[in-house]
From TrEMBL:
Transmembrane segments: none annotated. It comes from Streptomyces himalayensis subsp. himalayensis. One of its GO terms (biological process) is negative regulation of DNA-templated transcription. GO terms for molecular function: DNA binding; DNA-binding transcription factor activity. PANTHER family: HELIX-TURN-HELIX TRANSCRIPTIONAL REGULATOR, ICLR FAMILY, TRANSCRIPTIONAL REGULATORY PROTEIN. Pfam families: HTH_IclR, IclR_C. Keywords: DNA-binding, Transcription, Transcription regulation. It comes from the Bacteria. InterPro entries: GAF-like_dom_sf, HTH_MetabolicPath_Reg, Tscrpt_reg_IclR_C, Tscrpt_reg_IclR_N, WH-like_DNA-bd_sf, WH_DNA-bd_sf. Residues 85-257 form the IclR-ED domain. Residues 22-84 form the HTH iclR-type domain. Gene3D superfamilies: 3.30.450.40, Winged helix-like DNA-binding domain superfamily/Winged helix DNA-binding domain. This is IclR family transcriptional regulator.
Length: 261
């Protein structure tokens, strides 16, 4: 006697209607993922080759991604680059990093202790990027740092912290930067010794002190005090600097380092 197959409740008739949608998402992700720090611009021919599709298909995808501000097109060079919406998404992604949630109470406590703006930055593959800022509101002059700001690698206190503690292969420009500046070489050695970097730009009267945050034996971020030259000392042994260092080490312990950074 022939038996009739039973269809499970999760089984669907006909072809998978989601397949075209999945392919669309995969292709869009492939295009966006093709851009890197070393390859920030691509031609339509290069995108077509990455897709393994026709030029007409590649053009349809780039047009749709441009409409969503995920791609930018330079008519002068005929090259594509990532659009401004990617930066917004990147900022949101960084805001969701575990370090941001973990750092929040430490930053709030440090603001109460020293009465200055506290900034958290992470490494974005090329430079430090601000992912959280807790502003001091009690001073006559209020220092505010925009979340999403990318900081200079060699001149900012946060940048120098990353230069001092990141593996050399993660900072390809480091050997060239060090060769060009004896002062930078000495500063990086000093940072490794006392765990702090101080930056005092003469042009704006703002002073920053930064300390590393570690997860295990790897640096995962920097915590920084940002104030004016009148309220923040440039002495790494000052009570304010030591309070920052103490907080960064406590946060590192919270994130799993064995020695407090």
């Amino acid at each position: 006697m022939p038996m009739k197959a039973q269809r499970g409740t999760g089984e669907q008739d006909g072809p998978d209607t989601t397949a075209p949608t999945i392919q669309t998402v995969q292709r869009a992700a492939l295009i966006l993922g093709s851009f890197t720090v070393g390859k920030p611009h691509m031609s339509l021919n290069e995108i077509t080759a990455r897709l393994g599709a026709s030029k007409a298909t590649a053009h349809r995808y780039t047009k749709a991604l441009r409409a969503a501000n995920l791609l930018r097109y330079d008519e002068r060079t005929s090259l594509y680059s990532l659009g401004p919406q990617v930066l917004t998404l990147a900022t949101a992604a960084r805001a969701g990093l575990p370090i941001v949630a973990a750092a929040e109470p430490y930053m709030e406590d440090l603001v109460r202790r020293i009465d200055e703006t506290i900034v958290l930055s992470v490494w974005d593959g090329e430079s430090p990027t601000v992912v959280r800022s807790v502003d001091n509101t009690d001073h006559m002059v209020r220092i505010s740092v925009r979340v999403g700001s990318r900081l200079d690698l060699t001149s900012s206190a946060q940048g120098r912290i990353f230069l001092a503690f990141l593996p050399p292969d993660q900072v390809p420009t480091l050997p060239r930067s060090v060769r060009k500046s004896a002062e930078l070489t000495e500063e990086l050695e000093a940072i490794r010794q006392h765990g702090l970097s101080v930056n005092s730009p003469a042009v704006n009267g703002v002073r920053t002190i930064a300390a590393p945050i570690f997860e295990g034996d790897k640096i995962s971020g920097t915590l920084a005090v940002v104030g004016t030259t009148a309220t923040v000392s440039d002495d790494v042994k000052s009570p304010m600097a030591q309070a920052l260092l103490e907080t960064a080490r406590a946060l590192s312990q919270r994130l799993g380092t064995s020695d407090g950074g």
